Amino acid sequence: MKRSSSIRLVLVGGLSAGAVTSCGPSGESGRAVSADNVYTNNYQVAGVGYYHAPFRAWYAQPYNQFDPKTQRYFQGGQWLATPHESITNISAPTLDAARLAQARRTDVPRGGFGHTGGHWSTFS
């Protein structure tokens, strides 16, 4: 049985995307969202949403999610009558989209207010 070279390219592309972004919940925690990284469609970041590769940004709903009540598909921040068709299924976010996503993440601990001194003193 002969394998198609186009299938191998798709599989290699998918594997390289996983290697670059460390796809999966266990790999993302602590890894900064960056415009230097590539992400696949519907790559989810906690507190941010789903990455839409053709639009190079994150949105609250998954890419091409269908709403049976309205009979519409979600793509690039809009609900439209037809699903979005694009050959782009992996891309790097814009610099602004990456910064906003990193700021909105809920899966990384953030510093809070605290004291900077090593001791407390009371004057009488």
Structure description:
A hairpin with a 4-residue loop joins strand 5 (65-67) and strand 6. The termini are far apart. The chain is built from three helices and eight strands; from the N terminus they run H-H-E-E-E-E-E-E-E-E-H. Residues 7-27 and 114-124 have low confidence and may be disordered. Strands 2-3-4 form a three-stranded antiparallel sheet, covered by helices on one side. Strands 5-6-7 form a three-stranded antiparallel sheet, with no helix packed on it. The chain has helices spanning 5-21, 25-28, 95-104; strands spanning 39-40, 44-45, 49-52, 57-59, 65-67, 72-75, 78-80, 90-91. By secondary structure, it is of the alpha+beta class. The radius of gyration is 20 Å and the shape is globular.
List keywords for this structure.
19% strand, 3 helices, three-stranded antiparallel β-sheet, disordered C terminus, alpha+beta, 124 residues
Number of helices: 3
Cα shape: globular
User: Which strand order does the major sheet show?
Assistant: 2-3-4
Structural domain count = 1
Q: Provide the helix percentage.
A: 25-40%
> What is the radius of gyration?
20 Å
Strand content: 15-25%
How can the largest sheet be summarized?
Answer: 3 strands, antiparallel
Spans of at least 5 consecutive residues whose pLDDT stays below 50 are 7-27, 114-124
